[in-house]
């Protein structure tokens, strides 16, 4: 080692250690940022004129991206769940007449929204984070700010509205597909007549309200979490990749947490 | 009517990028900032228009301290201080003319129709009127840069920040851009801060030059000062030699 190199090495070891950032502060920072994006989004949603066609374009993008995928996924999930319910029921009471009635209540109150929101999050969330993230790394969001346009107003709000609208519609469609897939399996595997299966006597208006609220909330949450991740992108295409992954993970985590909260509150306010 | 950076510090997490940068840009001057890649040139100029906030230090624009303004208060600053970004940054979803029209609509509140008429005129000034209705993806990098310059100049700003305006331009377009920047200063009294590695531009049009090195200003002076300096780091940078004292 030359003397100069040794000196540089000495100097390097003399430097104070880098301050450690704890995972907790990082997470709190992220949450605070998410909260800010949420507030700004809600503010602009109610207070601003939108670019003509922006929401429609996003609705189309989201619908196009996820409808087919959701129909297939929810069809399979519906079939699997009903098959399992059927098998377990047969062990206890060999009476299949209430499988449809129980399943539809479960579906409306929770499964259609909460289970459906997961594939939706992977599809829609990843798309939103990648789009916004690549605009951030190519400085397009900075250019927007230079033009007096807030990126939240310009990029997040149309995606938020479209995700609430289309997300809810797609979750409802997915729920319906899961229901009919269940009907098919019930008929083929357990010989349950479709008329017997289509029993809505257990469904209350509370179930419908809670299920619908969940759809709206998940649609909005996916857009907000993914947009926030996208807006925080840094570091070229690698950064976009990271933001996309984090958007999906964050959305799934948010959906599960919100499901716990909404189901708990729902059990008090809209009891099953 | 000057721009002053005073003791600017900026770190990203543990990474210290700017460590006490201070200098003043005079009125109507064509001021160049040079330095190695990743030294923080883009980061530095973004502070002036509030795209980044300093951890410490003050920035004065027209004798007002701007670094602690709110985002909304910065809109006024951004009206008179435009920026041409390093990567052109046109909006993919808009045509060239819509891109140029955006600041007119947002800052000046023009209607879409008026803004587009105005935008086409600005595009013809940079010889891009043929491509007014093209999308950024359909034109070349150098053309995008010209549209980006047109967009930055739409509001007739008194200050313009150029982040590597001649990178990715062919030599002829690059020299035309130099001439345009010089004209902005000489004829319209615009104060320009130009980030550049392009030695031809630097020695062609710069009034004064600041070189950033390891988070600080290494040398600030005229073209002559840079040509005659004894500082080995600056000399290595100017001559572009691979071997030397400069650390990355
Ligand atoms: N948002 C950010 N988060 C973390 N680090 C950042 C961020 N923005 C910039 N940096 C880091 O700051 C340093 C300076 O970046 P900057 O873009 O200013 O370099 P530059 O001098 O303009 O280089 P170039 O000539 O390549 O454009 C780089 O090391 C970069 O990685
Ligand atoms: Mg740069």
Description:
The complex is a heterodimer of chains A (272) and B (248). With 272 residues, chain A is mostly helical. Chain A has one domain. In chain A, 83% of the residues lie in helices and 0% in strands. The longest helix of chain A is centred in the middle third of the chain and has 40 residues, at 151-190. Residues 1-17 of chain A have low confidence and may be disordered. With 248 residues, chain B is α/β, with parallel strands linked by helices. Chain B has a single domain (3-239), classed as Rossmann fold. Chain B has helices at 41-48, 71-80, 96-108, 112-125, 141-153, 171-188, 199-205, 223-228, 232-239, and strands at residues 3-12, 15-25, 30-35, 56-61, 64-65, 81-84, 159-163, 191-195, 208-213, 216-221. In chain B, the strands form two sheets. Chain B has a six-stranded mixed beta sheet, with helices on both faces. In chain B, strands 2-1-4-5 form a four-stranded antiparallel beta sheet, with helices on one face. In chain B, helix 3 packs across helix 4 (112-125) and helix 4 crosses helix 5 (141-153). The longest helix of chain B is centred in the C-terminal third of the chain and has 18 residues, at 171-188. The chains are: A mainly alpha (272), B alpha/beta (248). The interface between A and B is medium-sized, with 17 and 28 residues. The complex binds adenosine-5'-triphosphate and magnesium ion (MG).
């Amino acid at each position: 080692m030359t003397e100069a190199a040794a000196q540089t090495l000495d100097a390097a070891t003399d430097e104070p250690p880098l301050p450690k950032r704890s995972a907790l502060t990082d997470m709190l920072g992220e949450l605070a940022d998410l909260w800010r994006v949420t507030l700004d989004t809600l503010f602009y949603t109610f207070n601003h004129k939108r670019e003509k066609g922006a929401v429609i374009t996003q609705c189309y993008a989201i619908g196009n991206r996820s409808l087919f995928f959701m129909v297939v996924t929810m069809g399979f999930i519906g079939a699997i769940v009903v098959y399992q319910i059927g098998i377990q029921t047969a062990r206890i009471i060999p009476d299949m007449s209430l499988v449809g009635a129980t399943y539809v209540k479960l579906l409306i109150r929770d499964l259609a929204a909460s289970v459906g929101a997961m594939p939706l999050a992977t599809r829609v969330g990843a798309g939103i984070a990648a789009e916004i993230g690549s605009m951030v790394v190519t400085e397009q969001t900075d250019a927007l700010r230079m033009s007096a346009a807030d990126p939240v107003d310009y990029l997040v709000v149309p995606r938020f509205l479209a995700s609430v609208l289309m997300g809810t519609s797609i979750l409802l469609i997915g729920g319906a597909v899961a229901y009919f897939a269940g009907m098919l399996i019930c008929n083929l595997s357990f010989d349950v007549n479709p008329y017997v299966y289509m029993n809505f006597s257990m469904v209350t208006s509370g179930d419908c309200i809670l299920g619908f609220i969940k759809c709206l909330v998940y649609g909005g949450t996916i857009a907000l979490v993914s947009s926030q991740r996208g807006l925080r992108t840094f570091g070229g295409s690698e950064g976009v990749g990271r933001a996309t992954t984090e958007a999906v993970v964050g959305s799934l985590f948010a959906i599960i947490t919100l499901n716990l909260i909404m189901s708990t509150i729902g059990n008090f306010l809209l009891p099953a | 009517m000057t721009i002053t950076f005073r003791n600017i510090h900026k770190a990203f997490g543990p990474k210290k990028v700017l460590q006490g940068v201070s200098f003043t840009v005079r009125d109507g001057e064509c001021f160049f900032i040079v330095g190695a890649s990743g030294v923080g040139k883009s980061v530095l100029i973004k502070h002036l228009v509030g795209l980044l906030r300093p951890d410490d230090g003050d920035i004065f624009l027209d004798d007002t301290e701007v670094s602690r303004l709110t985002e909304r208060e910065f809109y006024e600053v951004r009206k008179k201080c435009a920026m041409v970004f390093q990567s052109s940054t046109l909006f993919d979803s808009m045509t060239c003319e819509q891109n140029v029209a955006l600041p007119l609509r947002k800052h000046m509140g023009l209607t879409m129709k008026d803004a587009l008429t105005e935008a086409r005129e600005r595009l013809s000034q940079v010889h891009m009127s043929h491509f007014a209705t093209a999308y950024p993806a359909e034109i070349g990098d150098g053309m995008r840069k010209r549209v980006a310059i047109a967009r930055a100049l739409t509001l007739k700003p008194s200050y313009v920040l150029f982040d590597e305006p001649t990178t990715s331009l062919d030599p002829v377009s690059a020299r035309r851009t130099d001439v345009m920047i010089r004209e902005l200063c000489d004829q319209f009294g615009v104060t320009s801060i130009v980030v550049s590695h392009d030695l031809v531009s630097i020695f062609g049009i710069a009034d004064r030059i600041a070189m950033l090195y390891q988070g600080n200003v290494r040398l600030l002076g005229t073209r002559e000062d840079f040509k005659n300096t004894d500082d080995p780091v600056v000399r290595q940078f100017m001559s572009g030699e691979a071997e030397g004292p400069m650390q990355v």
